[in-house]
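Annex B. Sample input.
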Amino acid sequence: MTAEIDTRALTQYLGRALDGGVSGELTTSLISGGRSNPTYRVTDSDRTWVLRRPPYGHVLPSAHDMKREFTVIEGLTNTSVPVPTTVLLCEDTDVLGAPFYLMEFIDGVPVGTVDQASSLTSDERRRLGFDLVDTLAALHGVDPDAVGLGSFGRPDGYLERQLDRWERQWDASCTIHRPEVSVLLDKLRRALPTSHFPGVVHGDVKLDNVLASRDDHGKIVAVLDWEMATLGDTLADVGIMLSFWDQPGTIDNPITEGLARLDGFPTRTELLDRYTTQRGIEIPDVDWYTVFADFKIAVILEGINTRHTQGGTVGDGFDDIADMVGPLLQRALELAATSSVTELRR
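Annex B, continued. Sample output.
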């Protein structure tokens, strides 16, 4: 699948849509094929932006909504959550063949792989882990109504709808029958917790979705990839964070490959203690949220694999996606089997 942007069409559009138009020749380059949304660096002679568009090929229903990403980033601009400044949203598919949005380019340091995080010192990794938790707690403390996001979603019934949604997504994407899926769904439905902490949910909390400061690698300067953001149960984000936070003695998340086991990173227990202290809450049934996170990530990966087999991905890093689904489902089953939540063990 070609990753090229029609620079002529984009130049003409930005000439009309941007104050002052485009200065000089416009160039574009793929930053990341994105296991989700392709992301491009766009540059004229004076400025640099980032362009996000939906994936090519197979797209799951209700997924990859550019307006959704744009809206939540715009809403969080003046909060303590570090996000890029939005520039414009284009919903006219005649321009580039799909909706897209433009935001400022943040010159930060990626820290989402073992190789990238290995370049940090132990102290930097420790502070970065805690800053991720502090940033998440700050996000969950945002009053949606105060930032124009009061109608961004429906917290009531969020967890039930999530289970229904990801079951539908699995049915729409699955390439082989996996009985683990129905077993996990049954366990999750029987053990469904009561939601107590509604708020803005990011939906994909991991180090790969933040940038660290070039001056201080222990400080986050931008939270990215808001495509799954909504209003819901904020503890779902905690489960996602823990799913990506590998620990000694446990099966690694196949995406992160032991990233958080690098020296210096806080433990899961330290992350939870920091989060609950920051928010002044206690977290019940955290195992449910972590099992659900593993299940949800597995479904997302199955969808990406389907898109890849149909030629709808751009960039590298997709050939091993199918091999990640089974281990995540198995890890979820193993955590459920040893959980303190009775209904998960059954």
